[in-house]
Amino acid sequence: MPHPNSNKVALITGASSGIGAVYADRLAARGYDLILVARRADRLKALSERIAKTHGVQAEAVVADLRDTADLARVEAILSANERLHLLVNNAGIARLGPVAQRSAEDALSQITLNITALTRLTQAVLPAFIARKQGVIINIASVLGIHALPVSAVYGGTKAFVLQYSRGLQQELAGTGVKVQLVLPASTATEIWDLSGVPLAALDKDALMTTEHLVDAALAGLDQGETITWPSVADMGLWDKYEAARAELFASTQVGTPAPRYNVI
């Protein structure tokens, strides 16, 4: 009688191309069975078949638009029910770049729904089982724009700032539980998100553009090294340490209960 598959399972959102597809290849090479979630059925089917053939793992394709309430609930149910699930990669995201007054409210809401709501709900779906099993990994893909505002990225950067703070809060909540949260902050990466965003990929500085392969390999190396926050393109991590120290000092300075003297409030 055949033994049931004992491989750990990773679910990857936004898996049909770009960063998600590279995560699928790399995690399959590490022996994970995969659940690949994306909107484009043809690409997803081709990727799952290639991954299964190349790496000898199971690769299930789940066609879903995580901006759709019913599809999101369906993926939540898959996460909650799979006892072998060990790793969630919250990669799906969308960017609609441009001045807020020149973009539609629908553009803003679509970014919020996918970049924030879907990520939050899927994370919520895996946490109870991960905590109960005292193991599990959540990888949240944010962006360097989570700490840097541009005149064309108010909404997109705002959604990634949420991912940053949400992930960091979770890391503190989950300390000692065995559940790990890795926050990844890519800079400009060569993916299709650019051509769909309103800023074409061809307009970017090629010298500052990272390949998806380099991005994912760096992020996984950071995970292996125990990093909770990974800046794939930052060579001097002392810069982050200084940023953190300044942030902590600024926060501490707010805890006084009285207006600052410059406001002359009596």
If you had to describe this structure to a student in words, what would you say it looks like?
This protein is an alpha/beta fold and 266 residues long. The chain has a single domain (9-236), classed as NAD(P)-binding Rossmann-like Domain (Rossmann fold), CATH 3.40.50. Helix content is 46%, strand content 14%. It is built from eight helices and seven strands. It has helices at residues 18-29, 41-55, 69-81, 105-133, 154-173, 193-197, 212-224, 238-253; strands spanning 9-13, 33-38, 59-63, 85-90, 136-141, 179-184, 229-230. It has a seven-stranded parallel beta sheet with strand order 3-2-1-4-5-6-7, with helices on both faces. β5, α5 and β6 (179-184) form a beta-alpha-beta unit. It is globular and about 70 Å long.
SSE map:
Layout: E1 9-13, H1 18-29, E2 33-38, H2 41-55, E3 59-63, H3 69-81, E4 85-90, H4 105-133, E5 136-141, H5 154-173, E6 179-184, H6 193-197, H7 212-224, E7 229-230, H8 238-253
Parallel strand pairs: 1-2, 1-4, 2-3, 4-5, 5-6, 6-7
Helix pairs in contact: 1-2, 1-7, 3-4, 4-5
From the structure above, extract its key features.
single chain; 266 residues; alpha/beta; Rossmann fold; 7-stranded parallel β-sheet
Short précis:
This protein has 266 residues and is α/β, with parallel strands linked by helices. It has helices spanning 18-29, 41-55, 69-81, 105-133, 154-173, 193-197, 212-224, 238-253; strands at residues 9-13, 33-38, 59-63, 85-90, 136-141, 179-184, 229-230.
